Every structure is written in structure tokens, then in C-alpha cells.
């Protein structure tokens, strides 16, 4: 990615929108409800909340790297990141987890405000090991908070996302699968769009899997978050002639 000031401004605004969406979703959970299972395997809602907190802290380390030039990795390792999440969950009650989620967003706001235009151009390494520039951080954080708002499992769905977020997330589907080394081939028949969309990753050959529905619904399926409405809805056709229930699980995404 090359630096573009207008793109950065847009993505900073999207990040603010995403933080508000996530916190609004989180705030609907009672402290006791935080120990309930999330939509992610083996994780409670507190796990999700503390992961999102540590994600913000990791991005602040990358912003510091960009500002100072001193290499400060997002996480020491993926294993250390996972250990930190588990330790935080073990020592953080539901009420505190919600409060910390708000505090860390304020801290991230301050870290972002301290960035100069030259800082945003700095080359760093993401938590997934990708070479990026600092200006990519706002979108990476935006994606994180919108997707994990769904994982809290209180009824928020991709149908609640702004159209701009839905469109941008579609751009990330195939590249993330490519980085994971998986193969996939889908033809999307989006009822709220005038054109079909093809998503292909890896060396997939043969006929594509046909998925039909509103763009936000199909996005939810591709992200591995299921269908946000009843799969009995005849408007959504999965494998030709079938319904969404007939669709195979997509490759793992985030």
C-alpha cells in the first residue's frame, strides 16, 4: 500500500464508526452475561472483549514503532498473545472487562492523534507478519471491531453494518484466504447489487459454489459467521437447486 492522505482520513472515520459499533454492542451485555459463550469456539464473551482490548494495545505498540522508529512488535508471539488473553480472562470480571474496553479505545484515540503524516508512512510489520505501512492500521482495527462485535453473540449481525463496511470487507475475503493458503471459488448473486461477484482464492478449479442473498448476508457466511436470517428463506440459494443449509462451510477467515 502507498500512502494516500484522503484514504487515511476515510479510514480513520471508519475506525471511529467501528469502535462505536463495537462498544454499543458490548454495552448491551450485563456483567454476568460476559461469562456466557461467545460465537467463537471455547471463548466466552469476556475472551472476545479481552482479545479486542489486547488488539488495541498491540496496535498502539505498532503506532509507537512508526513514531519512534524503534521496533516494537504488535505481540511478542502468537502464543504469548493467546496466553495474555487467557490470563486476562482469569483475572477480569465482566464489569471490569467492559470498562477496560472503553478505556483502551480512549488510549488508542490519543495514540492516533499523536501521529504525523510522516509517521503514517512508516514501514512496520503487522501482527500477522505482513509488511505494512502505519496508515493501514486504522482499517485493520476497523475490521477487527466490526467482526468481533458479531462474535459477542447478542444478536448483532452484518445486516447492521454500514454499506461501506460491507463493501470493504468483501475486498479482504480472498486476500486473507490466499495468505492462509486455502482454495475457494464462489459466485455471488447479490440481490441488492446489479452485478454478480466472483471470489476466488488459491488454485481452485471447476464450477464455483453459488451463493445468493443480500450482500451483508452473504458476507456473513463467507466470514464464517453464519446466516443472519433463517436459512429457510427461499431467496437464498446455495448449491444450485438447494438452500443455504446445503452450503459447505467456507474456509476459515478471521
TrEMBL record:
The protein's matches in Gene3D superfamilies, at most eight in alphabetical order, are given as: 3.30.1050.20, dinb family like domain (1.20.120.450)
- State a single Gene Ontology molecular function: metal ion binding
UniProt-annotated stretches for the region Disordered = 231-254
Against InterPro entries, the record matches this protein to: DinB/YfiT-like (IPR034660), Maleyloyr_isom (IPR017517), MDMPI_metal-binding (IPR024344), SCP2_sterol-bd_dom_sf (IPR036527)
Tell me which UniProt keywords the record has, alphabetically.
Isomerase, Pyruvate
Indicate the secretion signal residues: none
Show where the Mycothiol-dependent maleylpyruvate isomerase metal-binding domain sits.
25-152
Task: State its Enzyme Commission number(s).
Answer: 5.2.1.4
Check the record and name the Pfam families matching this protein: MDMPI_N
The reply on keyword Transferase is no
By what name is this protein known?
Maleylpyruvate isomerase
What organism, scientifically named, is this protein from? Answer: Brevibacterium jeotgali
Amino acid at each position: 500500500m502507498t500512502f494516500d492522505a484522503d484514504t487515511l482520513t476515510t479510514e480513520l472515520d471508519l475506525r471511529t464508526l467501528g469502535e462505536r459499533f463495537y462498544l454499543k454492542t458490548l454495552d448491551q451485555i450485563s456483567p454476568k452475561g460476559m461469562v456466557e459463550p461467545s460465537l467463537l469456539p471455547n471463548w466466552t464473551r469476556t475472551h472476545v472483549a479481552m482479545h479486542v482490548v489486547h488488539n488495541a494495545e498491540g496496535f498502539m505498540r505498532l503506532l509507537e514503532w512508526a513514531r519512534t522508529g524503534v521496533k516494537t512488535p504488535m505481540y511478542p508471539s502468537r502464543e504469548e498473545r493467546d496466553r495474555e488473553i487467557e490470563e486476562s480472562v482469569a483475572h477480569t470480571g465482566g464489569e471490569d472487562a467492559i470498562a477496560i474496553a472503553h478505556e483502551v479505545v480512549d488510549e488508542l484515540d490519543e495514540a492516533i492523534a499523536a501521529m504525523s503524516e510522516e509517521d503514517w508512512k512508516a514501514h512496520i510489520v503487522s501482527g500477522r507478519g505482513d509488511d505494512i505501512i502505519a496508515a493501514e492500521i486504522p482499517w485493520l482495527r476497523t475490521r477487527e471491531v466490526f467482526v468481533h462485535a458479531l462474535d459477542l453473540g447478542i444478536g448483532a449481525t452484518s445486516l447492521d453494518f454500514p454499506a461501506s463496511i460491507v463493501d470493504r470487507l468483501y475486498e479482504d475475503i480472498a486476500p486473507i484466504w490466499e495468505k492462509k493458503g486455502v482454495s475457494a471459488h464462489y459466485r455471488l448473486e447479490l440481490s441488492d447489487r446489479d452485478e454478480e461477484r466472483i471470489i476466488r482464492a488459491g488454485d481452485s478449479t471447476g464450477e464455483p459454489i453459488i451463493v445468493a442473498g443480500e450482500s451483508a448476508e452473504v458476507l456473513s457466511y463467507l466470514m464464517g459467521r453464519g446466516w443472519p436470517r433463517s436459512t429457510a428463506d427461499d431467496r437464498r440459494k446455495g448449491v444450485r437447486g438447494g438452500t443455504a443449509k446445503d452450503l459447505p462451510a467456507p474456509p476459515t477467515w478471521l
